[in-house]
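Table S4 entry, Membrane protein.
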Amino acid sequence: MSVIRTASLLAATVTMGLTAGLFYAYACSVMIALGGTDDRTFVDVMQRINTSILNGWFGIGFGGAILLTGITAALHWRGSARSVLPWIVAAIVLYGVMFVITSAVNVPLNNQLAAAGAPDGIADLAGLRAHFEGTWVRWNIVRAVSSTGALGCLAWALVLEGRIR
């Protein structure tokens, strides 16, 4: 059982790292690069990203992180490994913060951008971008911080798990 617990914790940590890395990459490179483009390019690229990101590879990190962390929490519920549980629960809470922000802010903004139609048919690209960009970027940084915090919690849980053995 100890090997299964550790393996699940490791898998949860890796998938959480993928998710945290995604939001970090947006914060420190993608959105900065797009910030220097014209309105049409910005809208076009964000629409393309928002469509193409919905794939299995994204699902492995985004969905796998919470699924595996939940399984890991269940596996650590009893016995000597229970001392690791608070860190796993903290990771779940921080992931929850990221998920709520994604659901309440970033996805609705992405949907509004998609609903505007093709960039060539949008009369006020600058206005659409202004409505989208600042809010999306700010809340993405919060997502990056919360998911990185979740990753840190799981990494610390791995350290503690190693000390139990």
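Residues 125-164 form the longest helix (40 residues).
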